[in-house]
Amino acid sequence: TFMIIIPLLFDFWPEETDQELIDRLISYNEDYESFCYGYQKEVNPCVFMTKLVNYAVPGIVICTMTLAIVIVSLFVSRSNRKAFVNKKIIKAFTKQREESLMKQKKE
């Protein structure tokens, strides 16, 4: 939620034109001017990298976090199941031992 919903609600992902993105990059560092304006192909690397960082990275992080949560929950679930089975086995052995002790005591 903090990577998708909150930025959408508070306009942290502004919809800027390509020119506004380039101007903002140049305002941070003047060296970008020759690189961003000198590029003559269809996809400007300045705009592409900025959009990648702003839009794709949060999605990738969310997918990674989801995968990590699934893996951790899988291990926790397995260990809980093993502990449950072990508890039942110990309970059964304890009951069997008590019964055998009771038989010995009667004899």
- What is the terminal-to-terminal distance? 69 Å
Which residues sit in consecutive blocks of at least 5 with pLDDT less than 50? none
Describe the biggest sheet?
none
What overall geometry do the principal axes of the alpha carbons give?
Answer: rod-shaped
Topology:
Layout: H1 5-9, H2 18-28, H3 32-37, H4 45-106
Please provide a written account of the structure.
This protein is an all-alpha fold and 107 residues long. Helices cover 79% and strands 0% of the residues. It contains four helices and no strands. It has helices at 5-9, 18-28, 32-37, 45-106. The radius of gyration is 31 Å and the shape is rod-shaped. The termini are far apart. The model has no long low-confidence stretch (mean pLDDT 83).
Features:
single chain; 107 residues; mainly alpha; 79% helix
Q: Outline of this structure?
A:
The chain has 107 residues and is an all-alpha fold. The chain is 79% helix and 0% strand.
